Recover the amino acids of this structure.
């Protein structure tokens, strides 16, 4: 008799599991996939990337595609391989950094330069065999930048990155964990500028941990992004990249060729043409400082630009 | 077997044993932080648990604080600590102390309550005053459970200290988080192995200490057959975060 | 008191209700995912633990290895276990669930064994005397009497799992943990608070439901003192 009660209870637990699984798993109408197909869009784990992913995805959705998002999937080391093995279909890339990343992965010399179109061309050369296409680069740019506190800049008369050589040996650099191995990050600072820092502190990519580290004095110089909303809000100044370590990191969608039909490509290219850096910076600020939703900001942008 | 070889190579790389980012330094960092937080937590938790157990008031809180503590995700405690105190060692320490307190309060309370009322009576009958009853009768009998609580907290803390690497602290979790960021799987796996081994060492050493501090008269002569199941009032469970 | 938070002197209250009301769908999706991940882990954990528990109960030979292995799995910190699995099973639900299930095993198996052990010998002898065959005795006498202990273990396993699901945010899953993680990534207190509060609330609801369920199916234990 009690066994029956246990069985009933167990059955209801399993039923509950099944109900919740079917009810809310992806939050979207997975049962009604559109005839136009599904696109999985991923983003890196910072707001700008999420905004861009939702701009691309939102426009596709408005055209009738089913869009799945994998937001904050990780850094490039996670996202690019995911694109290569088909776990995702599309992500908003950055022309120079993605090119160098792919070069390194394929074991060839780094080729990124200061012309966005050339970078994209080379990206396509490297990725076509993987079934991936780089579409048109946008005029919108977000590249690595190095910032110091305003106080430190004033105290040490720092305007350009070269100026840092006077103090580098006693300073701590902060950045994401992959920074020591990235040519546009610590590796480049050493080879192009000859800056050898006393220590490196692994934080995040220009996010709250980096800003907190500045505030607490744990780092003297840190990686931020040129379109970041928090730079001036945190009394930081970006040092001029006088030796042009950073290359043309224009926004470019990286997409699986299988998904990139003419409608999709045309749509994403026209979005790219309309994106610009000031808009991006403003949206970043809204997301990171004013805590607005990246997806909402993307929706507003789409509406304002007729997508 | 190639992956196993890569992990082995990672361990054999001399550079990984040197400097602030090297294995010895990170291990010591991890142990020092864990030890300090357990110690401070004990200084807070034990008087509370023992006191409540001795005077017999507030038992419901003492028992349930462990359940409440278990219900709060350690990841959340860490992030909240960072929001309150910034990054680095301080929020890690505060979060770890907070996490270590509940099991010690509950276990020391239960340990004190389990002292047989007759034994207490006998002690009082012998003329012992309250403080003497506490120190010479109740505490020695409660000691095994008190130690069990400390042990649970210690293992919890070592585990959660791993997560603290996510908020820019150091410790062995650094290898896991950095390996993650670099997608350097051998580093990540090596970090995971080291953390696992450290946790097991702490678990077994504390078990040894627990056995050593159990008064001889209370040690079971053979393995306890009819133990209490976990989750009832007498909870000697270990909870890894 | 408004904390200034991590990023400069920007006002970020602990709960921004406008965010909450505007994100009910996101919050609900996170909650549902959290419940799913927990249920799958606990149900599978139970399915594995029951046979292993029976084996450990009956066989001295296997008891040691079963407890040792599940004990080791239990002691390994969650981030370490998930990261160790990622090179093999990727950033998937499978990785999350393998880890989550592993953490339930020790608690469940141990309580199953202890619960079965606590069945009084006289009861079993009486059952034998009444002609019960071993399987029937197991199913109709031993297991039902062990239910309080088993459910006690189930409660701990469930509450623990609910806490651990938050860590899976780091491997792309997360449930309510993704709200907490968002709070960390953006220095944004509201999702952090919402994720934490809901996680704790979920743990309490689960714990109380299981306690209530146990009372329903084992009315004889109502008079015995349990927590």
């Amino acid at each position: 008799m009690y066994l029956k009660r246990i069985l009933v209870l167990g059955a209801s637990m399993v039923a509950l599991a099944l109900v919740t699984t079917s009810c809310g798993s992806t939050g979207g109408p997975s049962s009604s996939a559109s005839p136009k197909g599904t696109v999985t869009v991923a983003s890196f784990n910072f707001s700008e990337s999420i905004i861009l992913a939702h701009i691309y995805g939102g426009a596709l959705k408005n055209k009738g595609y089913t869009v799945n998002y994998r937001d904050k999937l990780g850094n490039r080391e996670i996202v690019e391989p995911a694109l290569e093995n088909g776990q995702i279909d599309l992500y908003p890339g950055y022309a120079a950094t993605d090119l160098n990343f792919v070069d390194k992965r394929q074991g060839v010399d780094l080729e990124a330069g200061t012309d966005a179109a050339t970078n994209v061309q080379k990206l396509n050369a490297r990725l076509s065999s993987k079934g991936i296409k780089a579409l048109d680069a946008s005029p919108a740019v977000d590249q690595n930048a190095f910032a110091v506190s305003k106080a430190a800049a004033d105290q040490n008369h720092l305007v350009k990155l070269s100026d840092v050589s006077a103090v580098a040996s006693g300073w701590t650099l902060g950045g994401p964990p992959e920074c020591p191995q990235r040519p546009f990050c610590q590796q480049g600072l050493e080879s192009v500028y000859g800056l050898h820092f006393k220590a490196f502190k692994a934080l995040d990519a220009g996010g709250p941990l980096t800003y907190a580290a500045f505030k607490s004095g744990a780092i003297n110089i840190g990686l931020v992004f040129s379109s970041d909303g928090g730079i001036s809000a945190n009394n930081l100044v970006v040092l001029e990249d006088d030796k042009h370590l950073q290359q043309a990191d224009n926004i470019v969608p990286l997409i699986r060729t299988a998904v990139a039909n003419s409608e999709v490509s045309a749509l994403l290219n026209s979005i790219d043409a309309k994106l610009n850096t000031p808009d991006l910076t403003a949206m970043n600020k809204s997301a990171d400082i004013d805590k607005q939703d990246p997806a909402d900001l993307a929706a507003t942008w789409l509406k304002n630009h007729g997508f | 077997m190639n992956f196993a070889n890569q992990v082995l190579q990672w361990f054999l790389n001399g550079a990984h044993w040197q400097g602030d980012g090297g294995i010895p330094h990170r291990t010591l960092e991890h142990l020092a932080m864990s030890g300090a937080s357990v110690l401070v937590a004990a200084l807070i938790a034990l008087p509370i648990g023992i006191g409540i157990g001795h005077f017999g008031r507030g038992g419901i809180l003492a028992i349930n604080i462990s359940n409440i503590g278990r219900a709060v995700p350690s990841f959340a405690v860490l992030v909240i600590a960072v929001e309150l105190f910034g990054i680095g060692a301080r929020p890690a320490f505060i979060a770890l102390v907070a996490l270590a307190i509940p099991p010690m309060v509950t276990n020391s309370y239960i340990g004190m309550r389990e002292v047989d009322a007759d034994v207490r009576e006998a002690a009082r009958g012998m003329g012992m005053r309250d403080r003497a009853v506490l120190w010479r009768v109740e505490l020695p009998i409660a000691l095994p459970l008190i130690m069990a609580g400390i042990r649970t907290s210690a293992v919890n803390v070592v585990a959660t200290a791993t997560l603290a690497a996510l908020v820019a602290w150091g410790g062995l979790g650094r290898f896991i988080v950095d390996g993650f960021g670099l997608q350097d799987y051998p580093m990540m796996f090596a970090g995971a192995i080291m953390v696992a081994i450290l946790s097991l060492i702490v678990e077994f050493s504390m078990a040894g200490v627990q056995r050593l501090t159990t008064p001889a008269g209370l040690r079971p002569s053979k393995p306890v057959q009819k133990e209490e199941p976990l989750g009832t009032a007498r909870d000697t469970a270990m909870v890894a975060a | 008191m408004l904390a200034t938070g991590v990023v400069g002197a920007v006002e970020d209250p602990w709960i921004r209700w406008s965010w909450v009301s505007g994100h009910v769908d996101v919050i609900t999706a996170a909650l549902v995912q959290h419940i799913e991940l927990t249920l799958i882990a606990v149900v599978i954990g139970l399915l594995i633990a029951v046979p292993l528990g029976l084996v450990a109960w009956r066989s001295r030979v296997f008891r040691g290895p079963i407890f040792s292995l599940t004990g080791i799995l239990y002691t390994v910190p969650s981030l370490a276990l998930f990261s160790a699995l990622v090179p093999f099973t990727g950033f998937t639900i499978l990785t999350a669930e393998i880890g989550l299930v592993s953490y339930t095993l020790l608690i469940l198996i141990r309580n199953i064994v202890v619960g079965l052990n606590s069945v009084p010998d006289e009861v079993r002898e009486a059952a034998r005397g009444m002609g019960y065959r071993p399987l029937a005795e197991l199913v109709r006498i031993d297991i039902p009497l062990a239910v309080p202990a088993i459910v006690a273990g189930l409660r701990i396993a469930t509450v623990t799992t609910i806490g651990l699901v938050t860590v899976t945010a780091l491997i792309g899953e997360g449930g309510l943990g993704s709200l907490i993680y968002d709070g960390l990534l953006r220095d944004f207190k509201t999702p952090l608070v919402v994720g934490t509060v809901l996680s704790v609330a979920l743990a309490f609801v689960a714990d109380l439901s299981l306690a209530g369920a146990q009372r329903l199916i084992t009315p004889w234990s109502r008079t015995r003192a349990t927590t």
About this structure: Confidence is low (pLDDT under 50) at residues 222-229, 231-241 of chain B. The first helix of chain B runs from residue 2 to 12.
